[in-house]
Amino acid sequence: MQSVVPFHSGHAGLKQLLGGKGANLAEMTNAGLPVPPGFTITTDVCRSYYEAGMQLPAGLMEQVHQAMRELEQTKGQGFGDPAKPLLVSVRSGSVTSMPGMMDTILNLGLNDETVQGLAALTGNPRFAFDCYRRLIQMFGNVVFDIETYQFERLLHRLKQRLNVSQDSEVSAEGWTELIGEYKAVIRKEAGREFPQQVEEQLALAVEAVFRSWNNARAKVYRKVHQIPDEQGTAVNIQTMVFGNMGSDCGTGVVFTRNPSTGEPVLYGEYLMNAQGEDVVAGVRTPVPIAKLGEEMPLVFDQLVQTAEKLERHYTDMQDIEFTVEQGKLYLLQTRNGKRTAQAAVKIAVDLVREGVIDTGEAVNRIEPFHLDQLLHRAIDTDKPLHVLAVGLPASPGAASGVAVFDADTAEAWARAGRKVILVRSETTPEDIHGVLAAEGVLTSRGGMTSHAAVVARGMGKPCVCGCEALRLTDRAFAVTTADGEAVTVREGDALSIDGATGRVILGEVSLREPELTGELQQLLAWADEIRTLEVYTNADTPEDAAKARSFGAEGIGLCRTEHMFMSAERVPVVQAMILAETAEERAEALAKLLPMQQEDFEGIFRAMDGLPVTIRLLDPPLHEFLPNMEQLVVERERLNGRPDADPERKESLEKLLRKVRALHEMNPMLGTRGCRLGLVLPDIYEMQIEAVFRAVLSCLREQLDVRPDIMIPLVGHANELKLMRELVTRKADEVLGEFARTFRYRVGTMIEVPRAAVTAGDIAQHADFFSFGTNDLTQMTFGYSRDDAEGKFLTHYVETKLLPDNPFQVLDRDGVGTLIEWAVERGRAVKPQLKTGICGEHGGDKQSIFFCHEVGLDYVSCSPYRVPLARIAAAQAQLALGSAAAPVTAAEEPVSSGRSA
């Protein structure tokens, strides 16, 4: 096992071993950049630590001490030397960037003796004791798990006593006093003294950083971003450089491009006379990086040149941490910068135009789930807004909700169905569950590189930071607006934020839907040139169809006709059809529904002119259109108890109850629904089929290119589809008349019953296409009721790793996927040009789209707003996997008439 690697011995190719931070520090060291020397304890050690029951491997610290001796020789200082003390930072560094999720300790190596040596060596006692108090606080929090507020309240009290507001104003004597108080906190809370032996400090710190891999916030972050638990973290031990030694010192974070917009300008913040944690923790609101050009022009020019060099080297936007010590620039870290979806797309397109990467790499750079963020809503500017204050626009998008002031409340209220805005003075990594639950985040302190900003951007949440006009109390904040109005916002009050402008707005706001940017359209065009998988949409209205087409949908893979029955004016007609006592009564209700359905189909055909439209005939059981039985019983009892109750109402209520009871099934989702309903009550399907082909005729007369696919749901036996196909053909011939012999349409089925997948060869004899309804297929394959599983045991299954993913979100390859593969193989063995696709929610999931590409499906179908995501994911699948089982495209595939399969 490789345990310790000096920076000068590593390189970027060892990222899995050294972690992202360690690999990049090694790469920069070998490029001759000004990196403080150090070494990395590898991810192998982290894994061994957990395998051994959270024990450091034997012999590790001997290797660490040897590496420390090499650092001592390089620096001409001694670890624990009272005269010339060597101080180091101990920092985490996972393979996948997890900003702020794990722990760091700075200034390690200080004790009661070495702090005096540091004071004498620098001639700056105030600086030395400031470093010591920082070490004790961080050590107490990270190693001994003492809450930060235990230290912060003592610091606040000291500043009040000294009548100062900034840390830099505290004297050496003030820090000495505080150090004594901090030691007392450790003695009380940890039951031991702060360790004076620097070797003990180092061992405890290394172990604590490894421990932080499994802290609560890191686990949540890994779950959200799908980072494997077994990846582990490295530990980087690096000699300290100091940004808090005086007025010629500083620290900052800089991005080589704007991480919110993608603009190619240096973007970041810094603080003079401060340590790096002051910037990222949001304790002080930092200064824009451009100001550094005025304060330290030589350092700024060097930083600009270094940023350009690093971006070219890594061919991506970099997030760089730097420190200036007595006028000299040092680089502490570089990594690919977290960015918003808007910025990710613009940066990828710009890098292609600059000749840095090719179009395939640009497509691969985009995380498909980030495209959801690109479709952020924005505030409707046509309506007046009650703007309370303006902070820093840290993460774009707009959100409304009720104000909450702690992460636990945000999570609880969100779980109860309330939309919340998390308001904090600044967020800490412990707040991640609240950020995840909130619609957006607002902080009164911190900059655009603070924890809140970085995490919100990564999650696609709107965020406004550093809104210093807010005066926070326990469960409220007060603010004086630009007009001098005094306003108090309490917990539960409606609040809105605009992450694009930094505005904080009282009350809810109207939000407008997003539009595709020019850069995204370019990126999607490149993706379309690469992918072989077609992307359809699930749409039930002309409006949804038009929206999906504007997002690049190439057809409708699922039009759920039952959704057309749900409007207020149609439900009574549908209920009349269900409650009909005779065939004549049912025919009368169906005759009223027919023109309504025809109008719906005409609108969808017009919106999708020239593209296929897959229409699924009625799928749910009829009881879903009727009132709840328990509610009806309660109303009957209420009427029976009233002597003046309307007799006609009582009679109609009894009739309704009888019908509901007659339709009642113990398990209706496995009962009389889909094709089973069509076979028992064929007149319902006949009405729908007639509406489809009447709409076809109407659109043909308008010279539209109409391409209907009729989908029969819930087929489990070939005979069901055979009979249903005959019904479609007969009705089409009847309606189309002279067009029947020349007009082409498809008839197929949704494969959602396991038996249909297993007997796909038989079913394919009567089908022009298979559409896999993976929602129901997953339910029936696992034997899970989705409504019950997700609310009861499924979360536990995923959290305990019993299942790798929620199978309703990520397609289960081994079970459901095997059935799909069987069905495709057996169906195409009978009919080589059988068209295949999926139309469940998996059609918008990246991993599931990769599977669809692998098994050679023709298309995926997803909700309109996930169409851009699916286009990108399909291209990424082609880039990663190459050509699959050569699907037959819609253009190549001969379209059969409905007359025969």
Would you mind describing this structure in some detail?
Its cofactor is Mg(2+). Residues 419-502 form the PEP-utilising enzyme mobile domain. It catalyses: pyruvate + phosphate + ATP = phosphoenolpyruvate + AMP + diphosphate + H(+). The chain is of the alpha/beta class and 901 residues long. Helices cover 45% and strands 16% of the residues. It is built from 35 helices and 31 strands. The strands form 6 sheets. The protein has an 8-stranded mixed sheet with strand order 12-22-21-14-15-16-17-13. It has an 8-stranded parallel beta barrel with strand order 24-25-26-27-28-29-30-31, surrounded by 5 helices. Helix 6 runs antiparallel to helix 7, helix 20 (542-550) packs parallel to helix 22 and helix 34 crosses helix 35.
Q: What overall form do the CA principal axes indicate?
A: elongated
Summarize the main sheet: 8 strands, mixed
Overall mean pLDDT: 90
State the distance separating the first and last CA atoms. 62 Å
Tally of DSSP helical segments: 35
Helical percent range?
Answer: 40-55%
Count all strands and give the number: 31
* Strand proportion: 15-25%
The stretches of 5 or more residues where confidence is low (pLDDT under 50) are 885-901
Please tell me how large the radius of gyration is: 33 Å
Structural classification: alpha/beta
Strand order of the largest sheet: 12-22-21-14-15-16-17-13
Cofactor: Mg(2+)
Domain Pyruvate phosphate dikinase AMP/ATP-binding: 16-52, 55-286, 301-350
Keywords: ATP-binding, Kinase, Magnesium, Metal-binding, Nucleotide-binding, Pyruvate, Transferase
Family: Belongs to the PEP-utilizing enzyme family.
